Amino acid sequence: MGGGEGKETVIAGVDPDFIEDLSGYLDVLSSSARLRILKLLEKGPKDARTLAAGIDTSYENTKKHLDRLLTIGVIRKEAGFGRETSRGVHPVWNYALVPGSLEGIVRTLGLFGNLQVTLSRGDLADRLQEVRGQVSREVLEGAAVLVVLSGPDEGKILRMERPVVAIGREDPGAPLTAADPATALVLSGHYQAVSRITRPHGRFTRAGGGWQYEDTASSSGSRRNGGPVEPRKPVAIHDGDELELGQGPRAARLLVMLPGIATGKDAPGRGQ
């Protein structure tokens, strides 16, 4: 990604250990039950019995799912107390999300989502797309998202939950209404190449089942997959596209993740 419009990342000579680790990572995340556990833990730590009730399965199966999630470091186990009963409270193991783990999952799957890698055990690219779809449904609840790839906000997930969403840098002097989280995606002040949100750098619009991006005549411009975006002329964006707002070390690089929309070489009109 980022090497030109419509091009996918092709990895040659991949370390076998990397392939093995990625395959195991996908195995863990390919379970709908495990993804539902992560979604429940997003609301706070819970013990295994509470989680079992939440995903409607047995305690024994829930423990197995938790053990698998522990192996990839997205959750942690910590001592706590269960609900109070007539006999008092009992110590339990609570499970909690590792801070930033959900963002890390989305970022990892997004970055590797267009890999053309074939394993003897099956096609890794197909498995990546399948797991991305599951994560989108179970964890992101079908929202279109941007993953920040540079600067202090790296790894942050920006959800596009309204049909029109502006994006820009924070403006401390602006009224709160100028940065309504429902209609604005606000980056930190570090990204000085990005226009302030009060006069947004760009705007995302949902149209015809897809999304478009418009550079709203920003001072430092926007690039999509390495090519410039002409100001005031909306362009279609696709799953896996990379946007750069501004130029230089204070620019913002963003990965586009659009659930349910064709990706890579199968995306209609990619690069137009």
Topology summary:
Blueprint (H helix, E strand, L loop, with lengths): L15 H14 L2 H10 L4 E2 H8 L3 H13 L3 E7 L9 E7 L3 H11 L6 E2 L2 E2 H15 L5 E5 L8 E4 L3 E6 L14 E4 L14 E6 L2 E6 L6 E3 L2 E3 L5 E3 L4 E4 L6 E6 L15
Parallel strand pairs: 8-9
Antiparallel strand pairs: 1-3, 2-3, 4-5, 6-7, 6-16, 8-10, 10-11, 11-14, 12-13, 12-15, 15-16
What would you say about this model in short?
This protein has 272 residues and is an alpha+beta fold.
Helical amount among residues, as a percent range?
25-40%
**End-to-end distance:** 16 Å
| Global outline | globular
- Strand content is 25-35%
Order of helices and strands: HHEHHEEHEEHEEEEEEEEEEE
Number of helices: 6
Task: Estimate nothing, just give the exact number of structural domains.
Answer: 2
How much is the radius of gyration in Å?
A: 21 Å
> What class do helices, strands and sheet pairing give?
alpha+beta
Q: Count every beta strand, where a strand is a DSSP E run of 2 or more residues.
A: 16
CATH topology value of the largest domain: Tumour Suppressor Smad4
Question: Largest beta sheet, briefly?
Answer: 6 strands, antiparallel
Name the CATH architecture of the largest domain: Sandwich
Mean pLDDT: 85
Low-confidence stretches: 1-7, 261-272
- CATH hierarchy, class of the largest domain: Mainly Beta
Biggest sheet, strands in spatial order? 7-6-16-15-12-13
